[in-house]
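Replying to the earlier thread about multi-chain prediction with a worked example.

Input:
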Amino acid sequence: MLLGKSVTEILALIKNKKISSKEVIDYFLKRIEKYNKKLNAYLTVNKSYKADKSKKIKVPIAVKDNFCTKGIRTTASSKVLANFIPPYESTVTKRLIDTSFFILGKTNMDAWAHGSSTETSDFGPTKNPWDLSRCPGGSSGGSAAAVSSYLAPAAIGSETAGSIRQPGSWSGVIGLKPTYGRVSRYGLIAMASSLDCPGPLTLTTEDAAFILKIIAGKDEFDATTAPNEVPDYVASLKKKKKFIIGITDEYLNGVDCEIKNAFYQLVEILEKLGHKIKKIKLLSPKYSISVYTIIQRAEVSSNLARYDGIRYGNDRTFFGSEAKRRIMLGTYVLSYGYYDAYYKKAQKVRTLIIEDFKKVFKEVDMILAPTTPIPALKLGEFEKYPFFGEMMDVLNEPAAIAGICAISFPFGLTKKENLPIGLQLMGRWFEEENILNLTHQIEKETDFLGVIKKGVKNYPD
Amino acid sequence: MDNYQPVIGLEIHIELKTSSKMFCQCSASYFGKPANTQVCPVCLGMPGALPVANKKAIEWTILIGKALNCQINSFSKFDRKHYFYPDLPKGYQISQYDEPIASHGWVEIAYKDQAKNALTKKIFRIRRVHLEEDTGKLIHSKNGTLIDFNRSGVPLVEIVTEPDFDNSDDVKRFLEELQVIIRYLGVSDADMEKGTMRMEPNISLRYQISKIKNQKLPNYKVEVKNINSFRFVKQAIDYEIKRQIEILKEGKTPLQETRGFDEKKGITYSQRIKEKASDYRYFPEPDIPPLVFTKKYLDSIKVPELPWQKVERYVSLLGIRYEEAFILTRDKNLADYFEKINTKFKTQIANLNLKIQNPSQLIANYIVNKKISSQLPPDEFINKLIENLRPKEVDKNLLEEVINKVLKENQKAVLDYKKGKVNAIMFLVGQVMREMKGKVEAKIVKEEIEKKINKK
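Result:
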């Protein structure tokens, strides 16, 4: 009865007394019991649900293990924090709990979110539910896999540059990266502070809109959150808006044929739906990689300085090799005499990238592109790639660097290996409404939802 | 001091007395509180916690900058300063690097030069005033070292001077003036014992070849830490100058280092050798958006009348001597007290049949010399003052009796006076005054004595 139901659908069922919150939570706990060993999507499962007297409706949700959850172990998948139980609640989880969610568990990720495969987790990799020999993507791989295999009806992830969209794409679910500053980072264990962005991974566009509405908005505990009003993302899905959509060859270089085909197929559909497609010129994503690498490493080296061994039990020897590499590189680029050559220059190029998007967004409402150049890689394959697979985020980094919003959604499967293909829409700053609106239109007019449903059915009750 | 000229610069830390900490809502008043009771995820540097800047602390830093004649920068930002120390929970301190809130200021000090008996004025430049957070506190015990984070994140203003000082007396005067200014602003108690004002002098010496001032800075400098009184600053600087001269005379260069001050022995001792400037890997704090101040906002921050301005007003408008004006203005409460009495007294004086040349100076004298306690409410002070000023009814008989007694006991002085030693009479007047316990005016006593002696 519940299999594959979205958050919105489950809420309706509970409201109509067709099922209780407890039954729903027990249902998912049972599924986790059944499948988590195989997938390793969850690091910690929260079995503490007790129906309170207020009979408040609670829908379960999975949360990436880098959000501090009061009383629930939070590790960021690093052994350094193996025993860390936060004494406080992150703003995102607090807002979820205060509305109608129950934190079902904490999901696996690349340690400290350093990676794109969930393989750098100190607690073992998460498997791609579509093919257990493959990566789910990362760093929010546990969250993506949990939704894809229906071990949760939705999950919270975080993205620094691709960590929501890329695993969303590889695991065949919807992944929304909001505008930087749209969602509070308070309580999110920092990776690169000027880029980090919490967002939902869901089965439907409506769920993404629903969850964003809850978690978005100004937070007095995060000075970088924007005061912009939070629109009713769900209500605005109903209008069938027409958009001018930009496409660019820069985002198709080196992209797998099947993904390219899916891309062009969608272009055709969008035109048929009455949207205007416009060819645009954007800076090559390769510049974003350089900028991202420097800024992210610099901020990582600073953000990890607090794990000096004095608090939290485990000392610096518990850092994995990827964290160590990033600390070393970040320390180097911030060193006296190198700061101007690296960090400062990177910030200047970052400004150019932002200007580039601003220019383009005068011509188009949003940009359509593939989410990843290739479908899910096999476990272990990442090591063959430089920067431990960050190249898989090449198409995600420009939006992250510019801080704009973007959404990835599944669009068919590869014929060869039957793996999900992800495409993405990148929108103007604080125009989540528009990218959600178009994704919703695509959802209604195409069969990409079929991919998600198909994925869920691989994991029967 | 041979041909060596001291080059001294100062770094002063002022802890602000805002109600909450710099980046979180914890109480900033930690003094005497049980360890780790004024803490939260932010000031403990917990994973995921974020700083939100305290507006009041920013406003007060601007106020300090203005009071020190600084340029207030309309754009400013916070930076992360990285170093590892157990009392620094994030592994970096949120501070300000290349865009401080205020810069390019100056402070003038004025003092009576005893030798010249003239007012000397000197200007010392302020390089920058910036805002940062304080660290936790390490408590060393037999069983190990403990950390108290109550102080972690308390707003701290750092004031850096140019190396404009060449002697320890000026340093002491400057610091005293600075302390009074800060207290006037009401932004800190600037209490050295409690650590809400801390200072670190940087001392080095340059060789003076000719009379032309050598402007080149020495190629080393010694920083002295852990000094908790102005007197000790002076001692530490004087000791350093002597120590460094000895080294330089041997043809060596003193080590670039941080030294502590041993107040019992009055000497400095080596703490940490600094071969080169530390690499703090500064970069802009991404968690706090840059600060942009509008002119309207900056104009709304008003500096109150400062101590040196009060001194000038007292001297030029109230006609008070510099010495009393200076003392009265060292404590703003005392200055306020004085002004209250001064205003009230002046309205009352018209109704009194008293001839007073300069009532302000008179009040100043009474307060400074503690002739009447300044603990009294202003009205009571004035009543006592008036009582003191009223001409005294003299008991003629008693006076005559005393004069007779004094003249009898001091025949020699009487003789001296008669021989023409006019001054001798003053001794006799003094004796009578003492016996009369001051209940008579000296002028009257003198007249009476003269009458008596001349009669004889």
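Chain B is about 35% helix and 20% strand.

Feel free to reuse this layout for your own posts.
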